[in-house]
Structure formats: C-alpha cells, structure tokens
Model the fold of this input.
Amino acid sequence: MGGGAKHRLVFVDRLLATLVHLRHGATHDVLACWFGVDRSTITRAIGEVRPLLAERGCTVSPDVRLRSLSEVVDHLGSSGKAGNIDGTEIRVRRPAPGREDRDTFISGKNKRNAVKSMVVTDGEGRVLWCSPTRPASCADITHARQLGLVKLTTA
Done:
C-alpha cells in the first residue's frame, strides 16, 4: 500500500486533462505543456480517468472508426445526427520567393498567407473528419466542392 510513483497531478487536473483530450482532441504533448508535466504523466492520467468516466456512462464509442469523408457522411446519416461543417484558415509564413504557387497561399478574405482545412464535427463538437490542408486562396464552398463534400451531402 502506498508504493509506486506519486501522482504529479491532483485528481481534478487529471480529470480536466482527460476531458480536454476527449472533447477537443488536444494531444498529450500539448496537455503536458499546459499542465507543466511530462507527456507520459498525461498519458497515464488519461488511461486512469477514462475508465472511471466509462463506468459512469460517459463514453466515446471506441468501435467507430471513420477514415474517409464518405464514411463520416454515412455515419451521420445512419445515426440520424446532425453534423457541422466549417472551413478554417491557419496562418502560415509566406512561401519562399521563386515558388511558383506563392500567390495561392494569400487568403482574399483575411489578406494574409494561410492554408485552409475543412472540418466536420458531430452535434456535440467532436471532430469526425479533417481535410488535408490546401492553399487558402479559394472560398469554403469551392474547397467543399473540390473535396466532394457537396455531392455527398446532396445525394
């Protein structure tokens, strides 16, 4: 009794780290920086707290693996759940001079160099799918059409 390594995080911090990880998908490295501990401490904390949440009915289905956009649309359609689609821009450094596609990174809306990604979440805000990044010089609807999202949702 009482042997082994002592917890570097109190229970409330372990619970908070687990909930942030499950809700927002924050990586263990990011959480470790936020809490000022090693990544392995966060990994152990999540491994301990997640089963406690599951015992009390707070689970994320481990059997659902959505690998493509069509699987996400099928999952939302078969479960009768609503999904949210949003395009997001991530600011990046200006590409090097001489690069042929340098101007395609300039977002017309925000007037800055960025890449764009489309994200699909469920009604509770869990990320179900995130597209690869592309230069941000096109509108969200154009990006959705290029990904085939418009055809999948109107069919």
